[in-house]
TrEMBL record:
Cited PANTHER family: ABC TRANSPORTER PERMEASE PROTEIN YPHD-RELATED, ABC TRANSPORTER PERMEASE PROTEIN YPHD-RELATED-RELATED
Presence of keyword Membrane: yes
Residues passing through the membrane, by range: 32-50, 62-81, 88-109, 115-135, 142-161, 192-212, 243-264, 284-310, 322-338
Protein name, UniProt field: Erythritol transport system permease protein
Subcellular location: Cell membrane
Amino acid sequence: MKTKNATFMETMIGEKQGSNSLTMMLLKGRTLIVLILLLIFFSIVTPNFLSANTFLLLAKHVALYGILAIGMTYVIITGGIDLSVGAVVGLAGMVAGGMIQNGITLQVFDVTLYFSIPLVILFTLLVGAVVGLINGITITKFGVAPFIATLGTMYIARGFAMLHSNGATYSNIVGNEALGNVGFTLIGGRVMGIPVGALILVVIAVAAGILLKRTTFGWHIFSIGGNEKAAKLSGVKVDKVKILVYIFSGVCAAIVGIITASQLEAAHPASGETWEMNAIAAAVLGGTSMMGGIGTIGGTIIGAFVIGVISDGMVMCGVSEFWQMIIKGLVIILAVIVDQFQRNMEAKIALQARNDTKGEE
């Protein structure tokens, strides 16, 4: 027979567990809640914010941030970071623009070769993959910290982008029918009113989500981020997985470079500057833990929408670009703090559950 004190204690414990469950639910859905609040706020401050034209513009920007962030999510889940993605965006655009406008000159044979757009795209993606491969090998084979390794390749990629045209812009990269290299601008266009970039984002997001959640490779990515030593002991080829993850991040960045150059019909070596911050912010806002081992593609996409809404909303409100940088930096810091709070709370709940189980025994 239970005493009044025992009943009171059970009631208090139940209320505390209910409070903890509500807090955890809010924490897990924080990005979606923030997105809704931002949409409400900017729709009040800027009456035209929820118009169809604004939404299509937002979709173009979110596509760029989202594709970058998907690659970044894979990297961060393994416990790494990729600071080179913004520079790869600029390099990829310059490579594609240069091949379309100037072709590739073989001085030995005194001939210039021009390639079809599919081949231009393939070669540009290969450039992104090579940068990712260099990152992966530097980190796994030489033991260089991801932050340092990708910081170095960031400068290298940006330098090659500048050297490609001596810092000049490739303008009007629409190709020439006589050379058989037209059609590049279609990538930055629309299909049935929807930006092609947004459609590409959907395809990559679905494929990346399935790969991450429903394949052995995805399990390996999570296991490396959760406990790399344990993953090695369980037979996971850690170095191979990490290299593939960085290659994927480089390819994602190259795709964004192609889309950006196509949308602008021009390529500038400074394209993509600081975009790595947008990618990191989107991933972290979406619930990807900077400690590794935790993350979802769906959450990252919502995070990309948050970054896009903040960026476009502040532009429409006339907020200075410098203040935008400050606000994005604060968003990243706040997201990491909330993530750490959530991890600590989950640990406390798990510990409480174990204690309750022992008490019942």
